[in-house]
Amino acid sequence: MKDRIAQLETYIMKHCLWQFHSRVWDRKRQNEGVLTKTTQILCGEPAAHETLEDRCYWVDAVCLADAFKSRCQWLNEMDKTEIKSLMQELKNRIDYLTIDGSLNKELTDVNY
Q1: How confident is the model over 23-79, as pLDDT tens digits?
Q2: Which residues, 6+ apart, have CB-to-CB distance to 47 below 8 Å?
Q3: Cα–Cα dist 60/83, whole Å
């Protein structure tokens, strides 16, 4: 599982700019929105895209799901429960890297 999460994490960190919002609350909301919708798409479930915010996350999620499926063939062989577990662990890892473990003091600077 760790190797698979690392592959997905590496793709996000190298190819996706959405995880670099300047505020903690923005990053939390963005990580949740994009990765939840990516999970839904990978599981063949409907992903809401009625609001402008949902559409923004949905577009990123569609691109991310397509990239994951084409680059990580093993993902296509997983069932929904396994995908959901994998994606939750990926979200936890991305939250750690971009929020909780980040050394960027601007994330919590009230004057920024």
Answers
A1: 888 899 999 999 999 999 999 999 999 999 999 999 999 999 999 999 999 999 999
A2: 36, 37, 40, 41, 58, 61
A3: 18
All residues at 6 or more sequence positions from 60 whose CB lies less than 8 Å from its CB, including other chains: 16, 18, 34, 37, 38
Q: Quick one: tokens of 15? A: 């190819």
Tokens describing residue 85: 């577990």
Token pair belonging to 17: 């700019």
Give the model confidence (pLDDT) of 3-29 as tens digits. 999 999 999 999 998 767 788 888 999
Contact 19, 94 (CB under 8 A): yes
Residue-range domain boundaries for the chain: 25-102
Name the one residue in this structure whose structure tokens are 């923004």. 56
Token code pair at residue 86? 């994998």
Instruction: Determine if the pTM surpasses 0.90.
Output: yes
Q: Which of 50, 14, 58, 10 is nearest to 34 (CA)?
A: 58
